[in-house]
Design a protein that fits this description.
Rossmann fold; 4-stranded parallel sheet; 4 strands
Length: 279
């Protein structure tokens, strides 16, 4: 009897359709955005988005609950039209790393880009919990997840390598990181607002946004369904299925075996990218 795929067979069978949809999404979003904030999933995008959204909402005197509704906030504040995207690099879509839509500059060529990065080992732990407990599309162990090219380290490193190789195609390309969000969220907020064309930053509003976007507060927002957008909800109530879960740096060490770590680190070294420079 053939063993069941750890990744949902429905996800794998729909991969070609999803690839076609990505191309349509890229064409649409190019017409809607001046700035793309790009990240591999589970790199701190929700935290980043809430931080920026809280600042913009306070700036134009909108309710904090609207912080995730970025398009109207950009219009009201005169900020550059900004879209958050995973740029075809998602562990939920069943695409192999060889797909040319993964991290494709077709989306953001000649546009401004902020790339939000995170330690791949931390990404993998968070992504596994999302796939297993939240979306329930993966039934295997974390070791299987790490090694599956559709979900694991191969896809992460392919995306990072492609962003690195094609970054010159953007009109402006900047890096920020999950680690910097922990260490100096105000610096990340300033960088993003300046990229959005907001050159004069209200420090008091910024500090208020930083306080309101603290990890402890984010957990409360998710638990109570605070934001008007449904993207930050956890209907199951299972803490393992939460969007805002651990949020600790280097927590991967308690979730990955020595074999897993060796496999991941070999893939990271083989990519030729300098993660020391990133962090």
């Amino acid at each position: 009897m053939e063993a069941a795929l750890p990744l949902s067979a429905a996800v794998v069978s729909n991969a070609s359709q999803r690839e076609t949809q990505y191309r349509a999404d890229f064409a649409r979003d190019r017409e809607l955005a001046d700035l793309f904030v790009i990240s591999f999933p589970k790199s701190g995008r929700t935290w980043h988005r809430v931080l920026v959204g809280l600042y913009l909402a306070r700036l134009c005197r909108q309710p904090a609950r609207s912080a995730l509704d970025l398009a109207p906030l950009c219009r009201l504040t005169g900020a550059a039209r900004t879209i958050y995207t995973h740029n075809g690099a998602n562990f939920l879509d069943g695409l192999l790393p060889s797909s040319d839509v993964v991290a494709s500059p077709e989306l953001w060529r000649d546009r401004s880009v902020i790339l939000l990065i995170r330690d791949p080992r931390e990404i993998l732990v968070s992504a596994y919990n999302h796939a297993y407990f939240r979306d329930r599309i993966f039934s295997g162990q974390i070791s299987d997840f790490v090694r599956d090219p559709r979900t694991g380290i191969a896809k992460i490193m392919t995306a990072f390598a492609r962003w690195h190789a094609s970054c010159h195609m953007a009109s402006c390309f900047q890096l920020t990181s999950y680690r910097l969000l922990h260490r100096d969220p105000m610096a990340v907020l300033r960088q993003t607002l300046q990229a959005m064309g907001i050159s004069v930053i209200d420090e008091a509003i910024g500090e208020e946004a930083v306080r309101a976007a603290r990890f402890e507060e984010m957990r409360i927002y998710e638990r109570h369904g605070y934001f008007s957008s449904k993207r930050m909800r956890n209907p199951s109530g299972d803490p393992r299925a939460a969007k805002v879960r651990e949020g600790r740096l280097d927590a991967y060490r308690t979730h990955l075996s020595e074999d897993d770590l060796a496999f991941i680190e070999k893939a990271m070294r083989s990519s030729g990218l300098s993660f020391e420079a990133f962090y």
